[in-house]
Amino acid sequence: MATALLFPGQGLHYVGMGQSLAEASPAAAAVFVEADEVLGFGLSQLCWQGPAETLTLTEHAQPAILTHSIAALRALQERRDVTFEAVVGHSLGEWTALVAAGVLSLADAVRLVRLRGRFMQEAVPAGVGAMAVVMGLERSAVEGACATAREQLAGRVVDVAALNGRTHVVVSGHADAVTRAGELARDAGAMSVSALPVSAPFHCGLMAPAAELMAGELAQVELGAPGATIWSTVSGEPVGDGAEIRGLLLRQFVAPVLWQPTIEAMFAAGVDAGLALGPGKALKGMVRRVARGLKVRVLAEASGLADTH
After folding, report:
1. pLDDT at 220
2. C-alpha angle 45/126/121, rounded to 5°?
3. Active site residue 203
4. Which CATH class is domain 2-123+206-308?
5. Catalytic residue, candidates 13, 60, 90, 203
6. Per CATH, the architecture of 129-198 is what?
């Protein structure tokens, strides 16, 4: 049996996240303490006490989710040996996966993902961008709707931002272009089109300024040798050397999240067990939709520690 650690992306934060882990595990508590020190403010208190509207800000939510996920891993490692052959993350989760694999230090990752969130938020003024989920159409049909929307609305951006399943596709771009692409997708037979409650249009061309800012920051960070196979949801393949890792982390800003093909390829390569670490249970369902034979356990809070043995 080959096991992969799976890490979630943005959107799964909640007030109280990780608090029970920190109370039950000194190792988990130390992760929150380190994050507080690196960021220079009480991220732990924001995670545990809110307010929710402040935690939801992209520059706070991203380091909060990463910190919670690594705290869950450290809490489990404190109790037993954790053997894993691969790591994979959804968008933001790729940064967490690099920490788990020993490529990025926790300190560097927490600092960088806070900047990542800030750069993303500042790349597009509030209200200008949007994202939506299209259900019931395959990627090619959704790409066709986006292409037509771009033709009809000259100069506007709308792209496929995530492939979470064969017929579960996220689009991102200018708000009016996303709306038009959604209308065209419905005309093409989509079962539903639902707006996402996000503050910026992630994983599309509008994020190019954020990628440029991150390039300078990422160039100053030392990357270690990976202790497990890293699967990239930017390329859908295992990652090679440090230069490739840096390049993919930058491409991630503007490229779609290839979750479905990445998980299918990982399963085909022999990974048949997964451990989802961090807030929420969404990854378990997202894996089940594309690779039912890959059995996933979840560790979000201290109550889950007993279930991961």
Report:
1. 94
2. 50
3. yes
4. alpha beta
5. 203
6. 2-Layer Sandwich (3.30)
For the question of residue 91 being annotated catalytic, the response is: yes
Section 85-101 average pLDDT: 97
47-78 b/e (C-beta count within 10 Å ≥ 16 → b): bbeeeeeebbebbbbbbbbbbbbbbbbbbbee
Residue with tokens 């067990």: 273
- Residue in this structure with the two tokens 């954790």, named with its chain if needed: 82
Q: Say yes or no to pLDDT of 281 above 90.
A: no
CA distances from 260 to 68, 180, 190, 267, 291 (A): 24, 25, 18, 11, 9
Q: Which of 69, 91, 232, 235 is catalytic?
A: 91
Domain extent listing, the chain: 2-123+206-308, 129-198
| CA 222/CA 225 separation, integer angstroms | 10
What are 101's two structure tokens? 């694999």
| Location of structure tokens 């949801």 | 233
